[in-house]
C-alpha cells in the first residue's frame, strides 16, 4: 500500500492529541494510528482509536491510514480483558459515527471501543427493523450490483 502524506487540521482536537499539543491517556500508537482513553467514558476502559490523518468521515481517510485500526483494536480488546475465554457476560462494541445525524461530535474519524460488562454501562442500541421483504431486497441488490459493475 502506498504511503499518503499525512493531513492535519490545526483546529482539530484529535489532531492536537496526535501531535501531543494537548494531553491524552495514550495507549497504543503506530505510524498510522493512535489510541487513547475517552475523556467521558460510557464504560470503564472506553477507548478511541483514530487514524493519524484528519478527515471527518470514513471515506475521507486513505486506506493506508486505516490499516492499523482493526489490529490495534484487537490488541486493546486483549489489554482490557474483554476476550477472556469462558468469561460469560462480557462483550464489547466497536462504533464509528459519521455525521451529526449519526451522533458524531468530533469531526475526525474515530472508532469507539466500548466495553459491555452490564446493562447499565456501555452502548445502548436502538435499531428499528423491517420485516424481510425479498422483492425490495432483490431490487436493491440488482441496482447495487449494476453500480459495482460500472465502477472501477
Ligand atoms: P462522537 O460522538 O463524535 O462519536 O464521539 C466523540 C468522543 O470523543 C466522545 O465520546 C467524547 O467523550 C470524546 N472526546 C471529546 N473530546 C475529547 C478529548 O479532548 N479527549 C478525549 N480523550 N476524548 C474526547
Ligand atoms: Zn483531526
Automatic annotation (TrEMBL):
Residue span of motif Histidine triad motif? 108-112
* Residues at the catalytic site: 110
Per UniProt, residues of the HIT domain are: 13-123
Q: Kindly give the InterPro entries that the UniProt entry links to this protein.
A: HINT, Histidine_triad_CS, Histidine_triad_HIT, HIT-like, HIT-like_sf
| Any one Gene Ontology BP term | nucleotide metabolic process
Pfam families listed in its UniProt record = HIT
For this chain, one GO molecular function annotation is: catalytic activity
Q: Which PANTHER family match?
A: ADENOSINE 5'-MONOPHOSPHORAMIDASE HNT1 (PTHR46648:SF1), HIT FAMILY PROTEIN 1 (PTHR46648)
This protein is called what? Adenosine 5'-monophosphoramidase
Gene that encodes the chain: HNT1
Amino acid at each position: 500500500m502506498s504511503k499518503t502524506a499525512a493531513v492535519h487540521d490545526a483546529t482539530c482536537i484529535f489532531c492536537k492529541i496526535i501531535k501531543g499539543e494537548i494531553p491524552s491517556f495514550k495507549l497504543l500508537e503506530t505510524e498510522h494510528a493512535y489510541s487513547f482513553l475517552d475523556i467521558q467514558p460510557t464504560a470503564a476502559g472506553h477507548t478511541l482509536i483514530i487514524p493519524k490523518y484528519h478527515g471527518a468521515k470514513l471515506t475521507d481517510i486513505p486506506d493506508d491510514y486505516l490499516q492499523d485500526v482493526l489490529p490495534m483494536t484487537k490488541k486493546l480488546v486483549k489489554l482490557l480483558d474483554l476476550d477472556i475465554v469462558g468469561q460469560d457476560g462480557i462483550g464489547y462494541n466497536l462504533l464509528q459515527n459519521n455525521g451529526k445525524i449519526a451522533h458524531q461530535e468530533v469531526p475526525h474519524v474515530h472508532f469507539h471501543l466500548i466495553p459491555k460488562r452490564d446493562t447499565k454501562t456501555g452502548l445502548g442500541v436502538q435499531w428499528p427493523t423491517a420485516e424481510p421483504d425479498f422483492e425490495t431486497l432483490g431490487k436493491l441488490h440488482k441496482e447495487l450490483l449494476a453500480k459495482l459493475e460500472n465502477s472501477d
